[in-house]
Amino acid sequence: MAILYTRIVFLLFVFFLSSSAFASFSPADEYLVNCGSDVDSTVDNRRFVGDASASKVKFFSSEGSIALKGENLALNVPQIYRTARIFAQQAKYKFNVREQGTHMVRLHFNRLYSSKIDLNDALFHVTVNGHVVLRNFSGDDKDSSSDFESRVREFLIWVDVGEVVIRFVPSKDSNFAFVNAIEVISAPKDLIGDAATSVSHDGTEKFNGLAKQAMEVVYRINVGGRKVTPFNDTLWRTWVPDDEFLKTGDGSSEKTYFTGRIKYRSGGASREVGPDNVYNTARVGKRSNGLVDMSWDFKVSAGYKYLIRMHFCDIASKSLGRLYFNIYINGNLAYQDFDISYAADDVLASPYYIDFVVDATADDNNSPSGSSITVSVGPSNKTNVDEHGVDAILNGVEIMKMNNSMGSLDGYVSTEMILSTCPNRRNLSIFIAMLAFMCIFMSFYIVTQRKKVKDQYGWTKLSMDILEDNPKSGNQFAARKA
Fold this sequence. Notes:
Number of helices: 7
Shape: elongated
Keywords: ATP-binding, Glycoprotein, Kinase, Membrane, Nucleotide-binding, Serine/threonine-protein kinase, Signal, Transferase, Transmembrane, Transmembrane helix
Membrane topology: Single-pass type I membrane protein
Distance between the termini: 144 Å
InterPro entries: ANXUR1/2-like (IPR045272), Malectin-like_Carb-bd_dom (IPR024788)
CATH topology of the largest domain: Jelly Rolls
Radius of gyration: 34 Å
CATH class of the largest domain: Mainly Beta
Number of domains: 3
GO molecular function: ATP binding; protein serine/threonine kinase activity; transmembrane receptor protein tyrosine kinase activity
Main location: membrane
Number of strands: 28
Oligomer: single chain
Structural class: alpha+beta
């Protein structure tokens, strides 16, 4: 009996540890909306609520919107991409939030085929809490590698007030806006810190105020590993392999995999910052393979600052204190002699990340097509070199565009400029109706006033004794004439 009791206690203890270690993130605010659908849909074990259901809370505000169902869709198209909500005029979704801080806003687009509406005519702007996040957007993703042309645009928005407002504005009267699904989720407190290291030709300096910047996720890369889907990420993110971005030849870098437990700890990266599937794979560089630097190149839009988050987890070293390396951004030294053991509190396989900010400028030819960001890791003079030693390592990279001085993530425009140049058709109709009413009212008022003046100052009926042609008194007018 004592042995059985001991086993039960042990199993409960193991279960408690496993539950604590792999407990999923539970956000204070979470809205998942299946736009244009009257039924709820489940994708990756997540329930998206249909916004066309009469029994559900109405999130959007737009009279005359259309719920559209796609036609001739492949069987593998997820349910949230089978319907869309179409807006022929300015519209908004409003979500009440309970928690102040960064919120993840994901907008899902899939240009459905429909015999009723041609989505090729879609062209619109999107704003989120006063930030222009998309401008003259068509919802098209020409670079999509999936069987259906879907696109997820993800933004990180700081929320001071108690709501997130997403506006859709058709670019012209002949265009319309659409969206297939929306996610609004409060982010973990440790996802975006307030400070980073700014890197330029002049060196490095501290960058403050990062947390309240609006940002768009441009790249999320799993270095040395496979694609990570939302199902395998605690924040339902997608990480893509790094192969197409790697500039260094494959012969000078090696992929490495780790089958042990990733040791998350206080002060390091949490599972919400980066999942196990990112930290248990990496690329490592070795000078024995002729390595100088491992580099990755990313195309970006010029004229913005970018947050570059680099993820590290030493899953390759045999012992502590042997791996030092340098970090470069666009060829500029961002961190010299990075001691990954010290950063991880002398724990192997313990994740850590560093945030850098860089100002992306146009290339030498001032090409309007944009610019590029290159991130590199290379050997340090402090590295203990041996035949099997590792000289550099990188597990993941995230690149996020930061809003410009206009508060925009897509062009040098403000929300006020967008709304003023793209009038709401409903508001225009109301204005015309009000103008017509005012004209009728003013006409009625003028007629009334004229009648009133006529009553006060017009001809009055003369006395009968004056008007009568009496021989005794005579006609006064005739007498005056005479």
